[in-house]
Specification:
Layout lengths: L2 H24 L5 E11 L7 H9 L5 E4 H7 L7 E13 L1 H17 L2
Antiparallel strand pairs: 1-3, 2-3
Helix pairs in contact: 1-4
Length: 114
């Protein structure tokens, strides 16, 4: 684990508090979605490649292999060709448009206070 990767993991863990603070200061919708990230593979490709399945464990990341019904419950709109995914429960989905909008509103409110 190099220093940049460690910084990325620390940032990921701090992001929920940052997102809440932006939402509180701006009054906007939080830019963080509670829907966790996953990495998938189409059926015809034979599923998630073995190195990709092993990588989270090697890096000490929580990951769960999903297939079939579990995958469809999590991602109902996913194309039927996708049959397997790695679920990464500590990774979050960020809406960058909402984040920038919230930061702009927060900065404007902060500037008006001075």
């Amino acid at each position: 684990m190099d220093p940049l990767f460690q910084l990325c993991l620390a940032s990921r863990d701090l992001y929920p508090d940052f997102a809440r603070q932006v939402a509180e200061e701006s009054g906007s919708t939080p830019p963080l979605r509670a829907r966790h990230a996953g990495r998938g593979a189409p059926r015809r490709g034979g599923g998630v490649a073995r190195p990709a399945r092993l990588l989270p464990a090697l890096l000490g990341l929580a990951a769960e292999r999903l297939g079939g019904e579990a995958l469809r419950r999590m991602e109902p709109a996913l194309h039927l060709d996708w049959s397997e995914a790695l679920y990464l429960p500590r990774d979050w989905t960020v809406d960058n448009v909402l984040l920038v909008r919230g930061l702009a509103l927060s900065a404007t409110a902060w500037a008006r206070a001075f």
